[in-house]
Design goal:
8-stranded mixed beta sheet, alpha/beta, 23 strands, 2-enoyl-CoA Hydratase, Chain A, domain 1, globular, disordered N terminus
């Protein structure tokens, strides 16, 4: 939809010249005030951000607040975020805050090694994250405990993945009115076929891969047998990881934890959760200070949150040689501003190649896939790095599936978490046919063409593909799948037939990916950096990160937009209808 607004200004003819002068003068005054205010505000903000470094004090407790959305790369702390969230038309308004996995892991390492930090308080359980990155945090906390320092956790209610993280704590506290949502996992999908039929839209599907189920919601009303099988298997793998890890920490067997899940502990009383052994102490969140004093051994402890602790100076290497870590997070697009944008990534990789001090590259991939063409362009840019004798190592996050695996497969070495969702080696295309909708609203189509398929692009959408057009499109999809599997075969040094045998769009967990050869080793991003260092034969080096972290002041200036929610939704729909025809994207599924 496009909204037009007409402003009508009535004025007497003789008043118009004077109004023009007044308008011009008003504009000049406005811009003068604007630039003066900007200069003053810039000076104030510059001073604010330049002094944002935090000095670590004795008797400090790291308050790991479990809230917001976990992202791969944290941003500089914005002291104006709370203020901006209340400003109308600001993109901060109503926006859930994000927290960087890199900041959390760096803070936990600092907390382990610095004697000024007494322990860690895991505060709350509302962090939105997937199992793989949750495991990275959990493993870092386990490593922290080797220092002999303590960890306590508290929350009003624990979500399942957050409880999986908190289970490493020396003491788990629960609010008297709360519970632990230990209920088992479920994976749910929404199907749109019948809804589209009602409005007269048919989604024409082209795909390769029995398990390539990302398009099933557009032509089915329930899971296919293949999709049900792969979903059951990866869900069971994640649940086994949760039971094994939590069971070891809480001295409970997998059978006992299954029995507790069947009781649906999320709606049981706090006392029942205590008796079951899921928590150690029932205490109001507001009273945690008294318990922290006991663990800290003093009432004069200091709390530092993730954002503040990330501002504490770390020792910086002055080594000339560099290991570049490039974060690739989100869906893959050919162009735009969101997710992994092929053109921008290629440009970034070219920049890295030009830096002769970069001796190795780590790609941190957290992506469910997207545009097949953009994936191919990124793959080629990675190969150019290798052609310059720069080792490339991939570290997979929550997802590195479909296009996410495409951009990973050409690396020298691949790490994944045991619960990373990867594979999904397959291709699909979707073209909406709005013929019935067009007829419903009374729109007719007519035209002339010079050649047999001149009107093919128009015809596919407004009349539906005929058999010849369908075959042409399917041939294009088949070529895309052949190229995808060939890239995987080349990167993994196996036959293309083998890749096709484990491909077919099938989703695998990281531990299974290692068994079938699409992953080399299970580990975290630090393991990937160590491997890159070893492949490059480096002794003295420093790690640099791309893209560069954005300045909060720049983010404030970019945060205003005047699009309504309806307009944003329409832009998303337009993007869906005009996006690249060939997609390498994993199924969209909600796991709870």
């Amino acid at each position: 939809m496009i909204f037009y607004r007409r402003n009508v200004v009535e004025a007497e003819p003789q008043a118009r010249p004077r109004r023009r002068v007044g308008c011009l003068g008003g504009c000049l005054i406005f811009f003068a005030v604007y630039f003066i205010c900007s200069a003053i505000l810039g000076w104030i903000l510059g001073d604010t951000f330049s002094s944002s470094k935090v000095t670590l004090q004795d008797k400090t407790v790291y308050r790991l607040e479990m809230k917001g959305t976990l992202v791969e790369q944290g941003q500089k702390e914005n002291p104006f975020a709370d203020l901006m969230s209340s400003v109308p038309y600001s993109s901060y308004a109503g926006q859930q805050e994000t927290v960087g996995l890199d900041d959390i892991l760096s803070n936990i390492r600092l907390a382990k090694n610095d004697d000024k930090i007494l322990g860690i308080w895991i505060d709350g359980a509302e962090l939105s994250t997937a199992p793989a990155n949750a495991k990275a945090i959990r493993d870092a906390l386990i490593d922290f405990k080797t220092s002999g320092k303590w960890i306590i956790a508290s929350a009003k209610n624990y979500g399942q993945t957050n409880y999986y993280i908190a289970s490493v704590a020396d003491r788990i506290c629960l609010d008297p009115t709360g519970a632990v949502s230990w209920n088992g996992l479920t994976a749910q999908k929404m199907y749109y076929t019948r809804a589209m039929e009602k409005i007269g839209v048919e989604m024409q599907i082209l795909k390769v891969g029995t398990f390539k189920s990302a398009v099933e919601p557009f032509f089915r009303t329930s899971m296919s047998d293949a999709d049900r099988l792969q979903t059951e298997q990866y869900l069971a793998g994640i649940w086994d990881e949760y039971k094994t890890a939590v069971g070891a920490a809480r001295h409970l067997t997998p059978a006992q934890l299954d029995a507790l899940a069947d009781r649906f502990m999320g709606i049981q009383s706090a006392e029942a959760n205590l008796e079951a052994g899921l928590v150690d102490t029932i205490i109001y969140q507001q009273d945690m200070d008294s318990l922290l004093r006991v663990f800290a051994g003093t009432k004069d402890y200091h709390l530092l949150t993730t954002g503040k602790l990330a501002c504490v100076d770390r020792p910086k290497s002055k080594a000339k040689d560099k290991v570049a870590v490039l974060y690739l997070e989100g869906q893959i697009y050919e162009d735009g501003n969101d997710g992994i944008v092929g053109k921008k990534v290629v440009k970034q990789i070219k920049k890295i190649r030009k830096d002769k001090d970069v001796k190795a590259v780590v790609l941190r991939v957290n992506s469910p896939g997207g545009s097949a063409d953009a994936s191919e362009q990124i793959w080629h840019a990675v190969q150019n790095l290798k052609a310059d004798s720069i080792p490339v190592v991939v570290s997979m996050g929550d997802y590195a599936a479909s296009g996410g695996y495409y951009i990973s497969c050409g690396a020298d070495y691949i790490f994944a978490e045991p619960t990373t969702i990867t594979g999904s080696i397959g291709i699909f295309g979707t073209i909406p046919n709005v013929k019935k909708l067009r007829e419903k609203v009374g729109l007719d189509m007519d035209g002339v063409s010079t050649n047999k398929h001149s009107d093919m692009e128009v015809n596919m959408m407004y009349n539906g593909m005929n058999p010849a057009e369908h075959q042409l499109m399917q041939d294009m999809i088949e070529r895309g799948y052949d190229l995808f599997t060939r890239r995987c075969a080349e990167g993994r040094h196996v036959s293309q037939d083998y890749i096709k045998s484990i491909g077919e769009g099938r989703v695998w967990l990281g531990f299974k990916g290692k068994e079938i050869g699409i992953v080399d080793e299970l580990g975290h991003i630090d393991n990937a950096i160590d491997k890159a260092v070893a492949l490059a034969n480096l002794e003295n080096y420093r790690v640099v990160y791309y893209p560069e972290v954005k300045d909060p002041w720049e983010e404030i200036l970019k945060s205003f937009d005047n699009k309504t929610d309806e307009e944003k939704l329409i832009l998303k729909l337009r993007e869906f209808c005009t996006k690249a025809r060939i997609m390498a994207l994993m199924p969209e599924v909600t796991i709870k």
